[in-house]
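Encoded backbone
================
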Amino acid sequence: MLFRSLGGMLAFCADCNEDQDCVDAGTGTACTLDAMSQNAICTSGELGSTCMSDAACADGKCGPVIEIPIPGIIPDLCNECDDSMDCMGGNLCSPVFDLQMFSGQKSCVAPGSVMNDNLCPEGPDGPMVCMSGHCNSATIMGIVEVFICGECDDDGDCEPGQTCMPAEASMNGINGSVCA
């Protein structure tokens, strides 16, 4: 079968083209892009599997890990949570995403458990998930806004004489804000 990704811009032979192909063949529930083999394979909808609907995911939550203003650039993925209301025991919903591998998921994490240079959710939960208490935005290619745990929000968070350098993001990786 032919798998189309990146908004239909890339096409190659694959085991499946959509989730229903896997269900029909009895080989899984999600047609997942496997970056290592560069093939679309059937999975049982584990966290991080690409998906087309909630039915494809074992935890029943198919959606974007990071918001992309151009539909279809990054496929939806199976997530543990959509937002913090889906988490138990005071945990918060936070994204993990590898831009180079187009993989990741939203997972429930303990407050204060996400280290610097890792993604955090937009909004009031962002600083709460970060060990540092600081979650700042950065933009990839001027299009995709992501939020990253870092050392500071402004110069006042740094030692005297230091400046808070903003968070940075590119297709090569992310870096949180730092005092320098």
